[in-house]
Amino acid sequence: MSYCRQEGKDRIIFVTKEDHETPSNAELIPEDPDDPYEEQGLILPSGDINWNCPCLGGMASGPCGSQFKEAFSCFHYSKEEVKGSECIDNFRNMQECMQRYPELYPQEEEKESSSQAESNSGSVSATPTEGSALPPETDSTAGTSTSESTVSSDSTSPTDNQIAS
Amino acid sequence: AYYSSVKDGFHILAVCNFTTILPEPSPPSEPSPAEVIEPPPAELAEAPPIELIEPPPVPSHTPYLLIGGGTASFAAARSIRARDPGAKVLIVTDEPDLPYMRPPLSKELWFSDDPTVTETLRFKQWNGKERSIYFQPASFYIPPEELESAENGGVAVLTGRKVVHMDVRGNKVKLDNDTEISYDKCLIATGGMPRNLQVIERAGEEVMEKTTLFRKIEDFKSLDKVSRNINSITIIGGGFLGSELACALGRRSNESGLEVIQMYPEKGNMGKVLPEYLSNWTTEKVKSEGVKVISEALVKSVTCKDDKLEIQLKDGRLVKTDHIVAAVGLEPNVDLAKSAGLEVDSDFGGFRVNAELQARSNIWVAGDAACFYDIRLGRRRVEHHDHAVVSGRLAGENMTGANKPYWHQSMFWSDLGPDVGYEAIGIVDSSLPTVGVFAKATAKDTPKAATEKSGTGIRSESETEDTATSPVASSTPAPAMVQHKDDYGKGVIFYLRDKVVVGIILWNVFNRMPIARKIIKDGEEHADLNEVAKLFNIHED
What we know:
Distance between the termini of chain A: 40 Å
Oligomer: heterodimer
Largest interface: A-B, 101 and 96 residues
Structural class of chain B: alpha/beta
Number of strands of chain A: 2
Order of helices and strands of chain A: EEHHHH
Number of strands of chain B: 28
Shape of chain B: globular
Low-confidence stretches of chain B: 1-45, 455-485
Structural class of chain A: mainly alpha
CATH class of the domain at 41-100 in chain A: Mainly Alpha
Strand order of the largest sheet of chain A: 1-2
CATH architecture of the domain at 41-100 in chain A: Orthogonal Bundle
Helix content of chain A: 25-40%
CATH topology of the domain at 41-100 in chain A: Helix Hairpins
Largest sheet of chain A: 2 strands, antiparallel
Mean pLDDT of chain B: 85
Radius of gyration of chain A: 21 Å
């Protein structure tokens, strides 16, 4: 049973697990995924990439930001049967740039990053490619842990393959 | 092999797979030996004139000028660069340091067992992962003199320079060395300076020398040093900063025997934020961290006698100590208001800006110095880290043409030891009526447990990246939760204004900020807040 007390203007309620088992009847206003005020996820309602998504960390804004944007734009809009197959040069440019800043873009072992692909694919696939129905925080969470664990461009911790901290 | 992972969808992981599988770029070919003309041997001459070391040249114009080198500025720089390809951004800061995050200065850095922490400014989180307080290392930035010619633009930081005058009509500023820089868009993110007690300011040199006003890296370094060499330290102030420093120093006192005193005018710690019952509970926790708490303390005078400080309280109590840390608030820096002709808010302080954070054409303000119009909660000024990130990012968006109002509500957090942690959002003023809904906590409900569960070292990273971490686990096991019906182990507290929830504290429940944000955003009247509390699943992890 819940227990309630009033201390002046402050009300205090203690609830047991059972007290909170019945579903809430509190009403929330339905979300509008196209609300221009809202923080956007990785993909905007228009289908464009939101380069300012917190989930990207500093990838789009660092010294290799232009190369990163070109590579990913190419991939994102690619209509090839094997998506992104025409973007090799863009990705190569990006890689070359990143190799010039090893402090910002630690070069990781191939083996570690592909095993990471396994462990991260769950959270990664949560990143929507269509207009987001998920609240922005979920995108950020998924994206952030992914991006920082693979290319820790903003983290100054070296060669770190763990999920972001 | 890499194509199949690429096919999985648009995700950043593909980058890494690509970058590791693509062939290494071929090494540059050996340059063909060129005709090398030896320079003529230096002629013997008189002693060369003494070379004056000129400061590096500063661009005379920058498209984006950010005044202040803190969190809001950095967030804006990143936002501008993300949205305006090839943008050239110049940050001007009077500090010697590149942009860094402030929360670890009163939290994680104190828990580090690395003896070089005051130099490295890196901290190991409880899960072993390390990071620096600097948002980016120096290699991220380009030198100011290279900004104008940078093909893809970049972010340059001019350190140790103060903007002393702003000519809004001419779209230019003047630095303390008389250099002028013109701009297209300008952000003012000047933050603020710690306030001091008048009684200390009037007390003279000897007292001032034994007083720390805490805000910057240099303050952290000097306080760390001082605290190792004295017997007694007193923190004046019972808010976030004062309480965090008191707890950090209190934990040290276990090893060093340092006496840690915290005094403040309120009845309990966080007395202006937490409802009384919770403030009292928190105060007990602070005491258990080894802090001697003197509440309802008003300082009448401070004198220096025989190299010790004597703090005389208005009620007659006398406290003797070796050093004082004054954590009594922040004075927003509005020095540029006069020359720039910008409005200063008389209620909250800071530059008055609209909902889009704009002060005047081409001038935006973000962070601690911005008194802005929050379309849901009304005009306010917020001094928290996440607000600096959110407002900095928004200002950057609007400087690149977005015209969005402040809408995504920022949050803040505080941890006072391993088993008291909370996250908060909106207006959490203890003078408002509150409704708190609590469950009994188990050993699983602590900041440490929250980070273990979510798999992220930074509890607040689900909100924004580049935020500080949760505290390192205490070396002693967490004390067992008192199984008492009035034990406020975990729960959610609603702050009401005209029957609408304007603020929420998540008390030892974590990773629920999105639902809290939603409730504030809706701004609805809810008949039964217990029903709203159900949405938080406070009994679960």
